[in-house]
Design goal:
The complex is a heterodimer of chains A (106) and B (120). Chain A has 106 residues and is mostly beta strands. Chain A contains no helices and 11 strands. In chain A, strand 9 and strand 10 (96-97) form a beta hairpin. Chain A is globular and about 35 Å long. In chain B, strands 2, 4, 5, 6, 9, 10 and 11 form a 7-stranded mixed sheet that branches. A 4-stranded antiparallel sheet of chain B has the order 1-3-8-7, with no helix packed on it.
């Protein structure tokens, strides 16, 4: 099975900062990589699919990149509503989620 | 409006059974890929199953042989039949519409979740 490793597991940042979350797959997954945002008590929300395609209605400050085994989610100019937990998910084989990155306000 | 609504969660004893429902509006369940994803209390997301539009269903190893997905087309609803439940099945269960392969099977529409607790 493919393992997905996200880093960091938690991150403190301020409004206006630029943050990057990384996700590494244990084997190549081409660009079968999706990113989700989850707020407490809510369902996850799809942000990016195919490693870099922004889902409709997602602000352009979110971007994704990578292929093969290494991927990044970047959030430019953090807004208050961006503080949440972020998950990567591979869909190359059996869908597997990363362990999550909790983004907190500094 | 495109929407998913789960129901059927609750408290069940170990070894018991439960059936969750996922009712869709604004799109047709049988024409789309659909997934179940769960989240144990305080934990991350775990994929449970995916059902393709042709009816093929695949399950995660932790539920294979115990959980079964079905669809009721006229009700535009998907079900998750859970048998031989274990305490480790305790979680919030989400259903999600899943995009096709060309969109990396991203899960773009989610229900609000329904909570399942397995405990004596």
């Amino acid at each position: 099975d493919i393992q997905m490793t996200q880093s960091p597991s938690s991150l403190s940042a301020s409004v206006g900062d630029r943050v990057t979350i990384t996700c590494r797959a244990s084997q190549t997954i081409n660009t079968y990589l999706n990113w989700y945002q989850q707020k407490p008590g809510k369902a996850p929300k799809l942000l990016i699919y195919g490693a870099s395609t922004l889902q409709s209605d997602v602000p352009s400050r979110f971007s994704g990149s990578g292929s093969g085994t290494d991927f990044t989610l970047t959030i430019n100019s953090l807004q208050p509503e961006d503080f949440a937990t972020y998950y990567c998910q591979e869909s190359y084989s059996i869908p597997t989620f990363g362990q999550g990155t909790k983004l907190e306000i500094k | 409006e495109v929407q998913l609504v789960e129901s059927g969660g609750g408290l069940v004893q170990p070894g018991g059974s439960l059936r969750l429902s996922c009712a869709a509006s604004g799109f047709t369940v049988s024409s789309n890929y659909m997934s179940w994803v769960r989240q144990a209390p305080g934990k991350g997301l775990e994929w449970v199953s995916v059902t393709y539009s042709d009816g093929r269903t695949y399950y995660g190893d932790s539920v294979k042989g115990r959980f079964t997905v079905s669809r009721h087309n006229s009700k535009n609803t998907m079900y998750l039949e859970m048998n031989s439940l274990r305490p480790e099945d305790t979680a919030v269960y989400y259903c999600a519409r899943t995009l096709p392969r060309g969109s990396s099977y991203g899960m773009d529409v989610w229900g609000q979740g329904t909570s399942v607790t397995v405990s004596s």
